[in-house]
Task: structure prediction
Amino acid sequence: MSKLDVLVMPKVHPLYVAALKAVHTVHEYNPADTAALVGVAPRIVGLAAGGESVVPGALISQLPQLKVLSVFGVGYDGIDVPTAIARGIPVTHTPDVLTDDVADLAMGLTLSVARNIPQADQHVRTGQWPQGPMRLGRKVSGSRMGIVGLGRIGSAIAKRAQAFGMSVAYTTRTERPGSGFAYYPTATALAAHVDFLVVITPGGQGTKHLINADVLKALGPQGYLINVARGSVVDEAALVQALSDGSIAGAGLDVFADEPNVPQALWGMPNVVLTPHMASATHQTRQAMADLAFANMQAGLSGQPLLTPVPECKAQMGL
Ligand code: A2R
Result:
């Protein structure tokens, strides 16, 4: 394939950008200087984005020769997929390759918040151990896990929870009778029956504030919330309130409503573990994501079958 012009959104992972730069002419999109795009826009055939990128329809419409939009990440809620489909432009993402890492971090956050692992580390490092023991934690093995979203990652979390002797229940819009797990039709009903509520749905309008004050109230003062999905899925103000007044026991959070800005109210809370949206951040998985995003880009540019188009494109474009 000859060298082509590819537009890269801000903050796209360097491994993906490096692969593109090795074979294409890469233009970095600057939302603060859209005039810079005018000259190159007619030549752009590929658009590279990250899982947190915002790609509005207006940008897609500015690129008359665009053939493919390849996202580095499984979530693509910031991409205007309907506009891309209307233009006949397929959107791809990177499912499966990050499933294990995200499920691992969900369990890591569960153990961390229940067993006070970050606080215990500080207890030792700051010389507090000789002064007395840590407060007791909450037993994880044998407890009840509820999973909001039993897809690829949710199922991988369920498998890990089972290995910890936990019972597993879930909610989805469509029941999965073959899963063998107890189904609840709403997040509120699920929350009332579990100790740990793990959120792992896609983001976007369909799930915005799915976890609201009512769900947190149902989870109750002994319950923990773990979010490895998107910040938008949880009503963050309601969560901060529930954590402050003891309506829930604690939370393990990898994602936030306005990243990288985490509400300061959470910083000092002892019953919260915070990580910087790093569920898929291992060398191995980020490389696999870069390889898949690049392969999708190359396939789209050369008219070959795409490896992993997003579900809407599969359904509506027959991919
Ligand atoms: O609702 P269903 O039957 O389509 O099941 C999907 C579920 N889900 C929901 N569950 C409850 N209420 C909703 N409004 C809702 N919308 C979707 O989320 C399905 O069980 C699950 C998504 O699974 P997958 O499509 O296999 O995605 P994967 O690879 O597990 O990743 C989930 C998300 C990504 O979109 C990123 O935002 C994040 O994890 O890293």
User: Anything to note?
Assistant: The radius of gyration is 21 Å. The pocket of A2R is lined by residues 74-75, 95, 102, 148-154, 171-174, 200-203, 206-207, 210, 229-230 (CB under 6 Å).
